[in-house]
Design brief:
Helix Hairpins, mainly alpha, 2 domains, binds magnesium ion, 117 residues, 4 helices
Amino acid sequence: MEPTDSMNMDSYKTMLAEVQAFHDKHNFKETGGEELTYRIALMAEELGEISSCVTKGKNKEQLAEEVADLFILILGTAISADFDLNQAFWSKMKKLDERKSKMINGRIRVSEFRDAD
Ligand SMILES: [Mg+2]
């Protein structure tokens, strides 16, 4: 689908519909493209590509493209596993907002800090 003026490109709904159209185009549902173990491997692969952007000093455009690859896979995983990622995002952000932060080895960490000193 080509972006049009009437499309809200900032909306989760529009992005999800685009990924759904991509899944439909290649019939992912019937061809193993929505199997979760396979998708985890694909997401790990993209995470590795993101890592390599950082460790090999690639530019911001290359990094953004690899992060977009992972983001698209994440949206597709919400489709594959049939959960509402938009709802999960807001519900998790609410939990995170209630958590405390701590400096650990010079870096900030926001967590529940269970079993921590
Ligand atoms: Mg990639």
